[in-house]
Amino acid sequence: AMIRVGVNGYGTIGKRVADAVEAQPDMEIIGVAKTQPNFEAHTAVKRGYPMYAAIPERAPLFAEAGIEVAGEVDELVAEADIIVDCTPSGIGEQNRELYETHHTPAIFQGGESADVADVSFNARSNFDAARDADYVRVVSCNTTGLSRVIAPLEEEYGVEKVRATLVRRGGDPGQNSRGPINDILPNPIKVPSHHGPDVKTIFPDLEIDTLGLKVPATLMHVHALNVTLGDDVTGAHVRQLLEDEDRIYVIPEGLGIDGAGKLKDLALDAGRPRGDLWENCVWGESIGVNGRDLYLFQAIHQESDVIPENVDAIRAMFDLEDKETSMQRTDRQLGVGI
Ligand code: NAD
Hints:
NADP; NAD(P)-bd_dom_sf; binds nicotinamide-adenine-dinucleotide; Rossmann fold; globular; glycolysis; NAD
């Protein structure tokens, strides 16, 4: 039987999760819940997703906008086998009680604090930790990007310490009130930043320090990584290791891809939905080694790298497939892999 999935919060992440779930053979979208009948609500209707009112008093606004409402969010939660909560940071925590009331398992996103769920999840790193769990948090875009690199390095060489500088986009393309629009902000100013502890929700024993900045960009984040490995390595060996990862795209030399803008163009040229880049994009030329110290640059598409992870989390929670089978199926159905 297909797993019946509801999405609560149909914004940047929610609309992508809905399409990704719908593309899988073993799960389906039975409805999405929204607070307001904006353009994304009309997108949901065009996609054929039944619309539920997240705030019951606002249901009439949907009718006025010509959108038929299938019911209230309560009913969606009661009907669904699982809810993927994609509401803004902090709202997921408030919603947990609603899910518990209906005994409906739920997935939360990385904007929530780790204690919203029993398990923090990255498919490549700890798929089995989510097996049979009722409440799982798919970690943030940055933590997902870091985890995908750390997992193979840890398995192959052992990791002594990770140091990462995260150059973060000021906001997503539609978030026109965010910034800075002309500045370079150490952000958070306090170092090391909170991003390292978040990675430790996936790798509890890892030594990691992170620093964050915010810049006037909307396209992607860029990470500068230094990883002290357990063994002396060669750049070529590390490169091969990363090339073998399906959710890492090692950008070849010679393509002229010198930044996030051209990566986004590559995705749009390929006809990818919403120009999404589900993979970490590691510049091959940047993979440099000095003894046990590895350096590299990677770009992370904040709007989409967590999407395949949400699909895999559903399979883990319902014990549908093993890790490799799930990840491969997700990737095939979405078109992950450049
Ligand atoms: P968003 O603002 O684009 O979308 C959130 C949606 O939820 C909006 O449609 C909003 O109207 C709706 N909403 C608000 N209150 C609601 C409620 N009470 N019930 C139901 N729906 C409600 O936000 P987003 O960027 O998609 O972020 C969602 C979560 O994903 C956050 O935890 C965020 O930290 C995390 N996340 C975001 C990104 C990113 O870069 N955008 C990346 C990874 C993880």
